[in-house]
């Protein structure tokens, strides 16, 4: 987090878990983009504008002028609430992947791929790193990697997860229907 020239605490918007500050009503487009991404956001409502209706756990508002301590407390509460509603998946030692209350059993190769993707959840993982995790000590076989990732993608859908291909960079695992920043 950083402090602005006005002395307001502002999160560094580097991850999906950061709470973004949105000036309302001036930054409507930013608000819509953050809503679509599922990113936590705190609306700074300037008088005399009425606050928008808040129906998602990732959103809250505070009327300006606001005390920095109040803004900070709302941001911390938003971050905690958002992380509870979208917890990271877990790879269990018994070979299962759990996402919230749902789980799936994985084959040994799927387990190693999932472990590497969950470790960097929401971040891009290179194909080389995934191949090294799936087949330790062997050279990369891009065809085999794609086949196993395709199978893993199918297995992940019922538990609300997906693996995205980031062209030329690698793959990332995220909650289904959420596009990261």
Short description:
This protein is of the alpha/beta class. The chain is built from 5 helices and 10 strands; from the N terminus they run βββαββαβββαααββ.
Structure description:
It is built from five helices and ten strands; from the N terminus they run E-E-E-H-E-E-H-E-E-E-H-H-H-E-E. With 181 residues, it is α/β, with parallel strands linked by helices. Strands 3-4-5 form a three-stranded parallel β-sheet, sandwiched between helices. Helix 1 (28-37) links the parallel strand 3 and strand 4. Helix 3 packs across helix 5. It starts with a strand and ends in a 6-residue tail after the last strand.
Percent of sequence in beta strands = 15-25%
What is the number of helices? 5
With strands numbered from the N-terminus, the spatial order across the biggest sheet is 3-4-5
Distance between the termini: 17 Å
Describe the global form: elongated
Provide the gyration radius in Å. Answer: 20 Å
Helix content: 25-40%
User: What sequence of helices (H) and strands (E) makes up the elements?
Assistant: EEEHEEHEEEHHHEE
Q: Please tally the β strands and state the result.
A: 10
Average pLDDT number: 84
Outline the biggest β-sheet.
3 strands, parallel
* Content-based structural category: alpha/beta
- The unreliable regions are 1-16
């Amino acid at each position: 987090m950083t402090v602005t020239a006005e002395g307001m605490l502002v999160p560094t918007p580097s991850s999906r878990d950061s709470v973004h500050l949105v000036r309302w009503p001036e930054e409507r487009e930013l608000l819509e983009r953050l809503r679509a991404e599922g990113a936590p956001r705190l609306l700074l409502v300037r008088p005399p504008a009425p606050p928008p209706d808040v129906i998602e756990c990732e959103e809250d508002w505070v009327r300006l002028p606001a005390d920095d301590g109040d803004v900070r407390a709302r941001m911390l509460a938003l971050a905690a609430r958002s992380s509870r509603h979208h917890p990271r998946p877990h790879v269990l030692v018994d070979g299962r992947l759990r996402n919230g209350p749902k789980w799936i059993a994985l084959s040994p190769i799927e387990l190693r791929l999932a472990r590497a993707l969950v470790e960097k959840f929401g971040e891009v993982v290179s194909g080389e790193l995934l191949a090294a995790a799936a087949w330790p000590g062997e050279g990369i076989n891009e065809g085999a990697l794609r086949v196993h990732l395709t199978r893993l993608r199918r297995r992940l859908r019922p538990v609300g997860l997906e693996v995205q291909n980031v062209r030329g960079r690698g793959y990332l695992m995220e909650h289904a229907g959420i596009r990261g920043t």
